């Protein structure tokens, strides 16, 4: 199957900057995929999306969408943004305040010079898909944030895009509306089958929405994979530490006698090991064959549906999690036993199949 979007050697360097904002990105997005570009602020994810949309011009590389070359820097080719047939949804909903919902949603079909009957059909379908038909005669100023977001998405659908590009569209919503809209995006993707590229800095958002995640940092792709692959088998320390809350516990070998003793002869190239908080079991005695640390309980932090257990060995803090109230007290001496380890070399790259190493 031919990819819906292909990026080859895509790069962007802004005038006056020596460091590329996007650096040699190679990526294929399959038809019907829900792909999330994920990373911290300034990692290049939004710039990548804007180049696909035609709102930014690449400095290097090629962009192909639906078999059509949109950008080819070496060949001097560039298709203007308005001719790319891509749907854009941004953090700012950008609704026309003087137009009601139906008129906002019908704006693109009108610009496309479709007949009145065709426009009405597309608008009605988009309003029904987003379950906002009853809002058709209202104006943006009369809508909640979640309703405005639905109108912005309906407007994009009515334009019949081959790809939907979404740049942090949930950032302006409160926690409850964000949760509702995540479910809305999942339903929309299942119902329409559209190819979606979604930019976010929120790892939870990416994990719950994406069929695949592209983790970026400093303009480069760090890892591409399903949510499970990204979380369970991070390609490097950046991905390992970026994904997860609380973050992965990292122990530098050479600074921890217990870790050094346990790791001796197991993997001579490993320079650090990581343990996810949910993979730390708190016991009163070491478990034979398992990596464990003697630690002190320094804090018990309730989060509502679970607990975070803060631990210390006198030099470093560690975090464990529990779905039940822990039978522990602050100051208690315990053992933190690792059920799974992630090993990394001096360059931060993943070392081995950790399931075989943890026991």
From TrEMBL:
<dbReference type="Pfam" id="PF00005">
    <property type="entry name" value="ABC_tran"/>
</dbReference>
<dbReference type="InterPro" id="IPR003439">
    <property type="entry name" value="ABC_transporter-like_ATP-bd"/>
</dbReference>
<dbReference type="InterPro" id="IPR008995">
    <property type="entry name" value="Mo/tungstate-bd_C_term_dom"/>
</dbReference>
<keyword id="KW-1278">Translocase</keyword>
<dbReference type="GO" id="GO:0016887">
    <property type="term" value="F:ATP hydrolysis activity"/>
</dbReference>
<keyword id="KW-0472">Membrane</keyword>
<keyword id="KW-0813">Transport</keyword>
<keyword id="KW-1003">Cell membrane</keyword>
<dbReference type="InterPro" id="IPR027417">
    <property type="entry name" value="P-loop_NTPase"/>
</dbReference>
<feature type="domain" description="ABC transporter">
    <location>
        <begin position="5"/>
        <end position="243"/>
    </location>
</feature>
<keyword id="KW-0547">Nucleotide-binding</keyword>
<dbReference type="GO" id="GO:0055052">
    <property type="term" value="C:ATP-binding cassette (ABC) transporter complex, substrate-binding subunit-containing"/>
</dbReference>
<dbReference type="GO" id="GO:0005524">
    <property type="term" value="F:ATP binding"/>
</dbReference>
<dbReference type="GO" id="GO:0140359">
    <property type="term" value="F:ABC-type transporter activity"/>
</dbReference>
<protein>
    <submittedName>
        <fullName>ABC transporter ATP-binding protein</fullName>
    </submittedName>
</protein>
<dbReference type="InterPro" id="IPR047641">
    <property type="entry name" value="ABC_transpr_MalK/UgpC-like"/>
</dbReference>
<keyword id="KW-0067">ATP-binding</keyword>
<dbReference type="Pfam" id="PF08402">
    <property type="entry name" value="TOBE_2"/>
</dbReference>
<dbReference type="InterPro" id="IPR017871">
    <property type="entry name" value="ABC_transporter-like_CS"/>
</dbReference>
<dbReference type="InterPro" id="IPR012340">
    <property type="entry name" value="NA-bd_OB-fold"/>
</dbReference>
<dbReference type="InterPro" id="IPR003593">
    <property type="entry name" value="AAA+_ATPase"/>
</dbReference>
<dbReference type="InterPro" id="IPR013611">
    <property type="entry name" value="Transp-assoc_OB_typ2"/>
</dbReference>
